[in-house]
Specification:
single chain, Immunoglobulin-like, Glutaredoxin, 3 domains, eight-stranded mixed beta sheet, 12 helices, about 25% strand, disordered N terminus
Length: about 475
Amino acid sequence: MLKRTFLLILVLALASLPGLALARPAAQLGTQQNEATFNFPNQITFTAQLTASSVIQSVVLEYGSEQLTCGEVVAKAFPEITPGTKVKASWRWDLRQSGSLPPGASIWWRWKAIDTSGQEFVSDTSTATWLDDIHKWQTLTDGDLRLHYYKGSNSFANSIMTAAKAGLALNAKDAGLKPDGIIDLYIYASTDDLREAVLYEPSWTGGQAFPDYNIVIIGINPNNSSEIDWGKDATVHELTHVLVGHLTFSCLGDVPTWLNEGLAVYSEGGLDPTSQKQLDAAIKQDKLLTVRSISGGFSEVPDKAYLSYSQSYSLVKFLVETYGQEKMTSLLTSLRDGTTIDAALQKIYGFDIDGLENAWRAAIGAPGHQLAAPTIQPTPTYVPTIVPFSGSQPQVTATPQVIPTSSFDGSNNPTPCASADPTIPSIPSLSDTPQWIWIASIVMILCCCVVAIVLIGIIIFFATRKRRQP
């Protein structure tokens, strides 16, 4: 009993010492009028009236959006307040400076208040959906899909939903791609309405996928049958980007553009006649783009951009229909795990990107891929340089060395006075030296000889004179 009493007194004594106080959990913060007001799509204003049992000295707003990230991302703002047990706080999030959020994104926020003693009071976390209040949105839900629209009949919404479900089924069958949560589709009644909902998008944007948010937005006129047909394909295309983005999400790896876009076009069911005609012409005229060149961003030149999409489709079609869905899924997961595209292809298919290019070209009847033209590779060679008055190290000069490639046969060896590369200057011959240089050189040599003779004469004169002295 005495031992327990002693321990209790010791704990209380330690807790009363400065700097050794036991940690206190964050207390609950009273909130009133806690809301986020939207000025869509430009700004979000957070306001609240906060109350605590002690004087609030400062306030911190923590906020963010629900999305896939490599780690917890919490933004903080520090609104100015008048200290007291009851304070008003307000802060504005300007998306024109920080970057736009996709329509339908879920935002969250909470308030922290710190009193004069340093104790923190924390409010509950609040959430809201970032969406304009101009349109009267309706929602159609089916399995993993939620379709939101504000114009058009129920049959229009059902037709888009049917196409989206078919796209999900095709992706699961051919590439092993499946949703891992609800995907929201926001259908705007025109591309103009869509561009007004997202900041800083190109003028030609008709649809966009946001894999980090599980959101797709598309502009489709419900009163135009041809645009509805386009919209069905576009919906499947963008849904595929969401599926690929989720399956391959990683802070380690990256998916080449030809694979990402190729899967999206393949999921639509194939190329339209115009795109197929362009691809056929490129094959016949040997004007295909290299696979490595479409691994990054596509060209901004329209013809090359369209051909990039068509080639990407053809590459994915070749891989899926030749080697099967399981290997395609393995390729995507390998990229997610940080494997490079060359290493992943080699491991799963037995060839790298260049090997893929040759196998694909052979399958579609295109000419084989030619290697790059010959290049000059500088090889460092140490050349001793005498520096009599400084401690400098010998200088390094580059000696050009020809590296043979497929277009270099090695039959023509460079002559001593001619470079193997036209960009490297030739060594001048003696006959190319200007005449005035010869004359100046001869005069300088003669002057040096005269000076030497005079000096020798003076030395001999003084030496002879010294000998004759008694």
